[in-house]
Design goal:
Blueprint lengths: L1 E7 L2 H7 L3 H8 L3 E7 L12 E3 L7 E3 L1 H10 L6 E11 L2 H10 L2 E6 L7 H6 L3 E4 L9 H12 L9 H6 L8 E2 L9 E2 L2 E2 L9 H10 L2 E2 L2
Parallel strand pairs: 1-2, 1-6, 5-6, 5-7
Antiparallel strand pairs: 3-4, 8-11, 9-10
Length: 217
């Protein structure tokens, strides 16, 4: 079983993702053990604030260290690999997902908000900081969900056709994209499926597929 903890300001946002489709089935089948932790529950402020102004000046508010410390402490031995989501983190790739799925059974994902984390969170409470790309989102919940999904789908029982689906990934560890794929009808608006794919010649199809793979840059 894979356990994933989300430390977030919006637990319902996280839980809604796992209420449908394959993620819901993973919960019902006992593949996934999902836990959402509301960061505000660990605020030491009477108004449940979890952010404050920046020392030395600067715009925006920073997430405070104390609520994250207490939230992580509440997990005890069930923290696993602790990942913070922020634009300054290391790029998360398919290779990373494979490594994590093979090495860990428990993950804790910390969503960033506002101007980001008090750096002591990164220095003392987190194992790794990840980003999905060179852009900024309004909250870290979407990246946290993306990372959770990319790891969960690698579980051998997540997809019924997992052997084929995981063998022919859109992104493999070498950074090569999958070849173009087509389905019926063979002709639509005079847009044609390549004849070789309908030929039944598996050797020629394999050559076409290999030729049309694209390097991911």
């Amino acid at each position: 079983m894979l356990r994933i903890n989300f430390i977030t300001l919006f637990p319902k946002r996280i839980e809604s993702y796992f209420a449908e489709g394959l993620p819901e089935k993973a919960l019902k089948r006992g593949i996934l053990d999902l836990h959402t932790i509301n960061l505000r529950d660990y605020s030491n402020d009477k108004h449940d604030r979890v952010d404050d102004t920046v020392y030395g000046g600067g715009s925006g508010m920073l997430l405070k260290v104390e609520p994250f410390f207490l939230a992580l402490e509440s997990l005890g031995e069930n923290k696993g690999l602790v990942i913070a989501l922020s634009p300054s983190g290391k790029s998360f790739t398919q290779k990373t997902a494979n490594q994590y799925q093979n090495s860990y059974s428990t993950f804790t994902l910390l969503s960033g908000y506002y101007e980001g984390f008090d750096h002591r969170i990164i220095e003392h409470l987190v194992d790794v900081e990840h980003s999905l790309g060179n852009y900024v989102l309004s909250a870290g919940d979407l990246p946290a969900l993306c990372i959770a999904d990319s790891i969960l789908r690698l579980h051998p029982n997540f997809m019924h056709d997992s052997v084929g689906s995981l063998r022919d990934e859109s992104h493999n560890e070498d950074g090569v994209l999958e070849y173009p794929q087509y389905t019926k009808p063979a002709s639509f608006n005079n847009w044609q499926v390549p004849k070789v794919l309908m030929s039944g010649n598996h050797q020629e199809i394999a050559k076409w597929n290999e030729k049309n793979r694209k390097k991911f840059i």
